[in-house]
From TrEMBL:
The protein, known as: 6,7-dimethyl-8-ribityllumazine synthase
Alphabetized GO MF terms: 6,7-dimethyl-8-ribityllumazine synthase activity
Binding-site list for (2S)-2-hydroxy-3-oxobutyl phosphate: E88, T89, R129
Entry-linked PANTHER family: 6,7-DIMETHYL-8-RIBITYLLUMAZINE SYNTHASE, 6,7-DIMETHYL-8-RIBITYLLUMAZINE SYNTHASE DMRL SYNTHASE LUMAZINE SYNTHASE
Record-linked Pfam families: DMRL_synthase (PF00885)
Catalysed reaction, written as an equation: (2S)-2-hydroxy-3-oxobutyl phosphate + 5-amino-6-(D-ribitylamino)uracil = 6,7-dimethyl-8-(1-D-ribityl)lumazine + phosphate + 2 H2O + H(+)
Family, similarity comment: Belongs to the DMRL synthase family.
Active-site residues per Swiss-Prot or TrEMBL entry: H91 (proton donor)
Annotated source species: Psychromarinibacter halotolerans
NCBIfam families: lumazine-synth, PRK00061.2-2
Keywords, sorted A to Z: Riboflavin biosynthesis, Transferase
HAMAP family recorded: Lumazine_synth
Amino acid sequence: MAGTETHYELPLPSFDAPVKLLIVVAPYYKDIADQQIAGAKAVAAEAGAEVELVEVPGALEIPSAIATAHRLSNFDAYVALGCVIRGETTHYDTVCNDSSRGLTLLGLQGCCVGNGILTVENREQAVVRAEAAGQNKGGGAAAAALHLLALQRRWGKPKGGFGFKPSGEDTLMAGDAEGPATA
């Protein structure tokens, strides 16, 4: 039973330069989202990170919001928060799989993302996982994003500085048949 197991948690990294963290939350189940946010903000504060919070309609919109912020803003890392509770249809599978896949693809492109989207069978499981004083999956997602950022900074900042933004030389835009886009 996962609720009674203990797991090793890495100590939070420390940073020499400021950290700007964006929390993107789908507050469909607001009480659960509020607990996740509290946990994520507490971990961010412990690491000395500046936090901005934005809300989106649902879990499927979280990767798109993070991708937009990654392209257009100067955030260093991102925390995805929300909750998907299994229902009577296969929509649950679509939302879980596609939101996770979107976040994974962002990570593979150099975006430091902590995935705190809960995918559970029922409300009780969500409450246990969301509680900031309990399993604190929101805090865990913030810690994951900060750990990825620490590795990114350790190994050298990607092109574009604090907020990874691919240069025009490396980016082929949709519909651009003649070659890479220019900035």
